[in-house]
Write a structure and sequence with these properties.
With 425 residues, the protein is an alpha/beta fold. The chain contains 14 helices and 13 strands. The chain has 3 domains: 58 residues, lambda repressor-like DNA-binding domains (434 Repressor (Amino-terminal Domain)), CATH 1.10.260.40; 135 residues, Rossmann fold (3-Layer(aba) Sandwich); 187 residues, Rossmann fold, CATH 3.40.50.2300. The strands form 2 sheets. It has a 7-stranded mixed beta sheet with strand order 7-6-8-9-10-12-13, with helices on both faces. The N and C termini lie far apart (93 Å).
């Protein structure tokens, strides 16, 4: 009868170690070197002979050794972790920002702790406290419309922070009494919005409505500024009735768009200030029986993955969302390396994505970078804007207006109605 071959003491020791948490001392013992040598190999702090280095790496592999980051943090006061607090993570824009943050953090050897403050100041402060208690090395946060509690907490505890997308504090160069300031990373907002407005004006539209975001957010105020600049560049007056707030979400935008459509002189073109509000606006247009762009033109700030699957395909401003996330990590790591360095505000350019919801003829998608300067949308000081480009047929009429005209001229053929808009400005 054949018995099972007994293991030697060394083999039993190795087998047990495979099922237990190996230590650096175990690696050193297995490789026949000192613990200090193992540390130098793993951390790259000192040159080690190639055969010695290989022996250490072989021992690491055999034992399944994983560095104890908790123990390391007790020595270095660093956890190599970053806290990220952004609301509406299900929004494709913030999802892509998250992807950019995670990829950049991983590339630099950092883990990521995630929190969703739900755009609520109390949740926001609670999230910041929890991330701080977890001893993250720094935080990246898209602040709410009322971030004072968050700002005070970060400043009081000297937490390295980068504000993302929304600027909750004065930009670099603000007055000393403007309160605590932090590094900031965001996209350009005013210039791209002005580009959408001048594009629609170039198609002949004179009444261009804006469904703006939540009051108090820097993105909202900057995009409103761009809207007004675009109107001025096109020689169009600002009509406060055409500016409504959709509170940065779908349901609010649906209500706000409905209010615009109820005006006696409704807009012939509409711009939405983020992707969620675009969905709400489309719902409202459908509820009112309006077709895009035959009855009303539509452009949106915030491109998203399926915008080209809509019929018509949505003309939009695309933000570099993944790049925003990645750049925020880089700025935060620079701050960790140089705590007293100058503050930075990084703005990334956007792209104008030319499709067909604006009323232009169908054709290949065109992507055009939006210049930082408003030179193409706002005239220099002292220069009088030229008259808006006049198309022979003017903009597509609102359906209610068309119905009135049809009633007064019942014999008019379809071809005699205002034709669909043609080329871009």
């Amino acid at each position: 009868m054949t018995g099972r071959r007994r293991r030697g003491p060394g083999q039993d020791h190795q087998a047990r170690r495979r099922h237990a948490m190996a230590t650096m001392a175990d690696v050193a013992r297995s490789a026949g070197v000192s613990v200090a040598t193992v540390s130098h190999v793993l951390n790259g702090t000192r040159p080690v002979l190639s055969h010695t280095r290989q022996a250490v790496l072989d021992a690491v592999e055999a034992l399944g050794y994983t560095p104890n980051t908790l123990a390391r943090s007790l020595v270095t006061s660093r956890t190599r972790s970053i806290g990220l607090a952004v609301s509406a993570i299900s929004n494709p824009y913030f999802t892509e920002i998250l992807q950019g943050v995670e990829a950049a953090a991983l590339e630099h050897g950092y883990s990521l702790l995630l929190a969703d403050p739900h755009d609520d100041p109390e949740h926001e402060l609670r999230a910041a406290r929890l991330l701080h208690e977890r001893r993250v090395d720094g935080v990246i946060v898209a602040p709410s419309a009322q971030p004072r509690g968050l700002i005070d907490h970060l400043a009081r505890h000297r937490v390295p922070a980068v504000f993302l997308d929304r600027l909750a504090v004065p930009a670099t160069g603000g007055a000393p009494d403007d309160g605590p300031r932090f590094d900031q990373v965001c996209a350009e907002n005013a210039e791209p919005m002005a580009r959408l407005v001048t594009h629609l004006a170039g198609l002949g539209h004179r009444r261009i409505g804006l469904v703006a975001g939540l009051t108090g957010l820097s993105t909202t105020s900057e995009r409103i500024t761009g809207y007004r600049h675009g109107l001025a560049a096109a020689g169009l007056p600002f009509d406060e009735r055409l500016l409504v707030h959709g509170d940065s979400e779908s349901a609010g935008a649906e209500r706000a768009t409905g209010a615009l459509l109820a005006l006696g002189s409704a807009p012939t073109a509409l711009v939405t200030a983020n992707n969620a509000m675009t969905i709400g606006a489309l719902r409202a247009l459908r509820a009112h029986g309006l077709a895009v762009p035959d009855d009303i033109a539509l452009c949106c700030f915030d491109d998203f993955a399926w915008a080209d699957l809509f019929s018509p395909r949505l003309t939009a401003i695309a933000q570099p969302s993944k790049d925003i996330g990645a750049r925020a990590v880089e700025v935060l790591l620079d701050r960790l390396a140089e705590p007293d360095g100058p503050l930075r505000t990084v703005r990334l350019p956007c792209t104008f994505v030319h499709r067909t919801s604006c009323g232009c003829p169908d054709g290949p998608e065109e992507r055009v970078p939006v210049e930082k300067a408003l030179s193409s949308a706002v005239h220099p000081p002292g220069e009088t804007p030229s008259a808006p480009h006049e198309r022979p047929s003017g903009p597509q009429e609102h359906r209610a207006t068309r119905a009135t005209r049809a009633a007064s001229a019942p014999s008019a053929s379809r071809a005699s109605r205002a034709p669909r808009k043609g080329t871009s400005s």
